[in-house]
TrEMBL record:
One of its GO terms (molecular function) is ATP hydrolysis activity. Keywords: ATP-binding, Nucleotide-binding. Residues 4-203 form the ABC transporter domain. SUPFAM superfamilies: P-loop containing nucleoside triphosphate hydrolases. Transmembrane segments: none annotated. It comes from Imhoffiella purpurea. It comes from the Bacteria. This is YbbL ABC transporter ATP-binding protein.
Amino acid sequence: MASLRLSGLRHRLLEPVELSLESGELAFVSGPSGSGKSLLLRAIADLDPHEGEAWIGDQARSSMPAPVWRRRVGFLPAESFWWADRVGEHLPPAEPALKDWLERLGFGPETLDWSIARLSTGERQRLSLVRLLAQRPEVLLLDEPTANLDPNNRDRVESLIEGYRQDASASLLWVSHDPDQRRRLDGRSLLIRDGRLEPESWA
Protein backbone atom coordinates (compact mmCIF):
# COMPACT_ATOMS: atom_id res chain seq x y z
CA MET A 1 0.00 0.00 0.00
CA ALA A 2 1.00 3.62 -0.29
CA SER A 3 0.98 6.96 1.47
CA LEU A 4 -1.50 9.80 0.90
CA ARG A 5 -0.32 13.36 0.30
CA LEU A 6 -2.37 16.52 -0.20
CA SER A 7 -0.89 19.71 -1.61
CA GLY A 8 -2.91 22.90 -1.71
CA LEU A 9 -6.16 20.93 -1.70
CA ARG A 10 -8.98 23.41 -1.29
CA HIS A 11 -12.75 23.53 -1.47
CA ARG A 12 -15.20 26.37 -0.87
CA LEU A 13 -15.15 26.09 2.96
CA LEU A 14 -11.52 25.18 3.54
CA GLU A 15 -8.21 26.94 3.10
CA PRO A 16 -5.53 25.03 1.15
CA VAL A 17 -4.58 21.80 2.93
CA GLU A 18 -1.08 20.39 3.18
CA LEU A 19 -1.18 16.90 4.67
CA SER A 20 0.84 13.69 4.50
CA LEU A 21 -0.22 10.28 5.81
CA GLU A 22 2.30 7.48 5.82
CA SER A 23 1.35 4.03 4.63
CA GLY A 24 -0.79 2.49 7.38
CA GLU A 25 -1.21 5.76 9.31
CA LEU A 26 -4.51 6.72 10.95
CA ALA A 27 -5.63 10.34 11.31
CA PHE A 28 -8.92 11.62 12.68
CA VAL A 29 -10.65 14.82 11.57
CA SER A 30 -13.09 16.65 13.84
CA GLY A 31 -14.68 20.08 13.87
CA PRO A 32 -18.02 21.87 14.20
CA SER A 33 -20.97 20.85 12.07
CA GLY A 34 -20.74 22.56 8.69
CA SER A 35 -17.00 23.21 8.96
CA GLY A 36 -16.23 21.19 5.83
CA LYS A 37 -15.16 17.77 7.09
CA SER A 38 -17.27 15.77 4.65
CA LEU A 39 -16.40 18.16 1.85
CA LEU A 40 -12.70 17.54 2.53
CA LEU A 41 -13.17 13.79 2.12
CA ARG A 42 -15.23 14.28 -1.04
CA ALA A 43 -12.56 16.55 -2.49
CA ILE A 44 -9.84 13.98 -1.79
CA ALA A 45 -12.02 11.33 -3.44
CA ASP A 46 -12.41 13.67 -6.44
CA LEU A 47 -16.18 13.78 -6.11
CA ASP A 48 -16.59 17.56 -5.78
CA PRO A 49 -14.93 20.55 -7.49
CA HIS A 50 -11.70 21.56 -5.76
CA GLU A 51 -8.27 23.02 -6.26
CA GLY A 52 -4.88 21.48 -5.53
CA GLU A 53 -3.48 17.99 -5.92
CA ALA A 54 -3.45 14.64 -4.14
CA TRP A 55 -1.05 11.72 -4.46
CA ILE A 56 -1.02 8.03 -3.63
CA GLY A 57 2.66 7.38 -3.20
CA ASP A 58 4.24 9.16 -6.15
CA GLN A 59 1.15 8.95 -8.38
CA ALA A 60 -0.92 12.13 -8.70
CA ARG A 61 -4.69 12.06 -8.90
CA SER A 62 -4.50 14.11 -12.09
CA SER A 63 -2.39 11.40 -13.73
CA MET A 64 -5.08 8.71 -13.66
CA PRO A 65 -8.73 8.32 -14.69
CA ALA A 66 -11.23 9.25 -11.97
CA PRO A 67 -12.65 5.69 -11.62
CA VAL A 68 -9.16 4.31 -10.99
CA TRP A 69 -8.47 6.94 -8.33
CA ARG A 70 -11.81 6.24 -6.64
CA ARG A 71 -11.07 2.52 -6.44
CA ARG A 72 -7.70 3.18 -4.86
CA VAL A 73 -9.01 5.92 -2.56
CA GLY A 74 -12.14 4.45 -1.03
CA PHE A 75 -14.73 6.89 0.36
CA LEU A 76 -17.40 5.79 2.84
CA PRO A 77 -20.09 8.51 3.11
CA ALA A 78 -22.22 9.03 6.19
CA GLU A 79 -25.25 7.82 4.20
CA SER A 80 -24.65 5.00 1.76
CA PHE A 81 -26.28 4.61 -1.64
CA TRP A 82 -27.65 1.24 -2.81
CA TRP A 83 -28.59 0.61 -6.43
CA ALA A 84 -29.76 -3.03 -6.52
CA ASP A 85 -32.49 -4.90 -4.63
CA ARG A 86 -30.42 -7.35 -2.57
CA VAL A 87 -27.29 -7.13 -0.46
CA GLY A 88 -25.39 -9.78 -2.40
CA GLU A 89 -25.73 -7.83 -5.64
CA HIS A 90 -23.42 -5.19 -4.16
CA LEU A 91 -20.68 -7.55 -2.96
CA PRO A 92 -18.20 -9.61 -5.01
CA PRO A 93 -18.75 -13.30 -4.17
CA ALA A 94 -15.13 -14.11 -5.10
CA GLU A 95 -13.70 -11.88 -2.37
CA PRO A 96 -11.92 -14.38 -0.07
CA ALA A 97 -12.42 -12.28 3.07
CA LEU A 98 -16.12 -11.60 2.49
CA LYS A 99 -17.46 -14.31 4.82
CA ASP A 100 -15.05 -13.34 7.59
CA TRP A 101 -15.85 -9.63 7.29
CA LEU A 102 -19.58 -10.30 7.46
CA GLU A 103 -19.18 -12.55 10.50
CA ARG A 104 -17.03 -10.00 12.30
CA LEU A 105 -19.80 -7.45 11.85
CA GLY A 106 -22.48 -9.83 13.10
CA PHE A 107 -23.90 -11.05 9.78
CA GLY A 108 -24.40 -14.62 8.56
CA PRO A 109 -24.24 -15.88 4.96
CA GLU A 110 -28.02 -15.42 4.64
CA THR A 111 -27.42 -11.66 4.71
CA LEU A 112 -26.47 -11.77 1.03
CA ASP A 113 -30.09 -12.66 0.21
CA TRP A 114 -31.59 -9.86 2.27
CA SER A 115 -33.54 -7.08 0.60
CA ILE A 116 -31.98 -3.65 0.90
CA ALA A 117 -35.40 -2.31 1.90
CA ARG A 118 -35.39 -4.40 5.09
CA LEU A 119 -32.06 -3.10 6.37
CA SER A 120 -31.89 -0.77 9.33
CA THR A 121 -29.71 2.33 9.21
CA GLY A 122 -27.03 0.60 11.27
CA GLU A 123 -27.09 -2.52 9.08
CA ARG A 124 -26.68 -0.40 5.96
CA GLN A 125 -23.82 1.42 7.61
CA ARG A 126 -21.95 -1.81 8.47
CA LEU A 127 -22.61 -3.46 5.12
CA SER A 128 -21.47 -0.39 3.22
CA LEU A 129 -18.11 -0.78 4.98
CA VAL A 130 -17.84 -4.37 3.72
CA ARG A 131 -18.71 -3.18 0.22
CA LEU A 132 -15.95 -0.57 0.41
CA LEU A 133 -13.29 -2.95 1.73
CA ALA A 134 -14.11 -5.44 -1.04
CA GLN A 135 -12.59 -2.93 -3.48
CA ARG A 136 -9.29 -3.30 -1.58
CA PRO A 137 -8.59 0.46 -1.41
CA GLU A 138 -5.14 1.71 -0.50
CA VAL A 139 -6.56 4.76 1.27
CA LEU A 140 -9.76 4.86 3.34
CA LEU A 141 -11.80 8.05 3.77
CA LEU A 142 -14.45 7.39 6.42
CA ASP A 143 -17.23 9.83 7.27
CA GLU A 144 -18.58 8.96 10.75
CA PRO A 145 -18.74 5.18 10.10
CA THR A 146 -19.90 4.40 13.67
CA ALA A 147 -22.19 7.39 14.32
CA ASN A 148 -25.48 5.43 14.35
CA LEU A 149 -24.23 2.24 16.00
CA ASP A 150 -24.68 0.84 19.49
CA PRO A 151 -21.47 0.20 21.46
CA ASN A 152 -21.27 -3.48 20.48
CA ASN A 153 -21.53 -2.81 16.75
CA ARG A 154 -19.30 0.26 17.08
CA ASP A 155 -16.59 -1.98 18.54
CA ARG A 156 -17.05 -4.49 15.72
CA VAL A 157 -16.65 -1.80 13.09
CA GLU A 158 -13.61 -0.29 14.79
CA SER A 159 -11.99 -3.72 15.02
CA LEU A 160 -12.61 -4.52 11.35
CA ILE A 161 -11.29 -1.16 10.17
CA GLU A 162 -8.20 -1.44 12.35
CA GLY A 163 -7.58 -4.98 11.12
CA TYR A 164 -7.81 -3.89 7.49
CA ARG A 165 -5.57 -0.88 8.09
CA GLN A 166 -2.87 -3.02 9.65
CA ASP A 167 -3.12 -5.96 7.24
CA ALA A 168 -3.20 -3.80 4.12
CA SER A 169 -1.04 -0.91 5.44
CA ALA A 170 -3.83 1.39 4.26
CA SER A 171 -3.71 5.10 5.04
CA LEU A 172 -6.86 6.19 6.84
CA LEU A 173 -8.55 9.58 7.26
CA TRP A 174 -11.54 9.24 9.60
CA VAL A 175 -14.11 11.93 10.43
CA SER A 176 -15.23 11.42 14.02
CA HIS A 177 -17.00 13.62 16.59
CA ASP A 178 -16.26 11.12 19.38
CA PRO A 179 -13.22 12.16 21.48
CA ASP A 180 -13.23 8.81 23.28
CA GLN A 181 -12.99 7.02 19.94
CA ARG A 182 -10.11 9.19 18.82
CA ARG A 183 -8.24 8.49 22.05
CA ARG A 184 -9.11 4.78 22.01
CA LEU A 185 -7.78 4.15 18.52
CA ASP A 186 -4.77 6.41 19.08
CA GLY A 187 -4.52 8.03 15.67
CA ARG A 188 -3.27 11.50 14.85
CA SER A 189 -5.99 14.08 15.65
CA LEU A 190 -6.73 16.97 13.29
CA LEU A 191 -9.28 19.76 13.69
CA ILE A 192 -10.99 22.00 11.15
CA ARG A 193 -11.27 25.43 12.72
CA ASP A 194 -11.97 28.73 10.96
CA GLY A 195 -11.46 27.09 7.57
CA ARG A 196 -8.09 25.58 8.40
CA LEU A 197 -7.03 22.01 9.07
CA GLU A 198 -4.68 21.96 12.05
CA PRO A 199 -3.45 19.59 14.79
CA GLU A 200 -5.97 19.08 17.58
CA SER A 201 -4.82 19.94 21.09
CA TRP A 202 -5.99 17.70 23.92
CA ALA A 203 -5.00 20.20 26.59
